[in-house]
Amino acid sequence: MVASTKKLGPAGRYGARYGSLARKQVATVERVQRAKHACNQCGAHAVRRVGTGIWRCRKCGDEFAGGAYVPQTGAGRGAQKALRGINDKLVRGAAEAAEETGA
Ligand SMILES: [Zn+2]
Asked: In angstroms, what is the span from residue 4 Cα to ligand 1's centroid?
């Protein structure tokens, strides 16, 4: 374990290199990336990052794709919303087609 640094936390490993802003930005991302997050399946605060974009709940074992450094991103939420809209349309279309054929 490296000596703890107050301000830079996980970016302390870079010493004096790369400039203070870059190190602060890395530290901000890495703190979130390594934190435990809430699980959408069981609600436990046990979701951890497995690899880039891969997250797993240590409580219920649920594994899902998310953001590279956070479990859910704004872009991901937008995509999910769009997919839900398409799915609803498909379900409605299938129901109407069934009505037309009298099935
Ligand atoms: Zn869970």
From this structure: 31
Share of the chain above pLDDT 70, in %: 92
Long-range contacts of 39-46 (CB under 8 A, 24+ apart): 40/64
Residue 17 corresponds to which tokens in the numbers above?
């290199």
Range of the domain at 78: 73-103
How far does residue 83's CA lie from ligand 1's centre (Å)? 23
C-beta atoms surrounding 31 within 10 Å: 12
**Distance in Å, CA 22 to ligand 1 centroid:** 34
Q: What is the CATH number of the domain that holds 43?
A: 2.20.25.30
**Taking the model in full, what pTM does it have?**
0.75
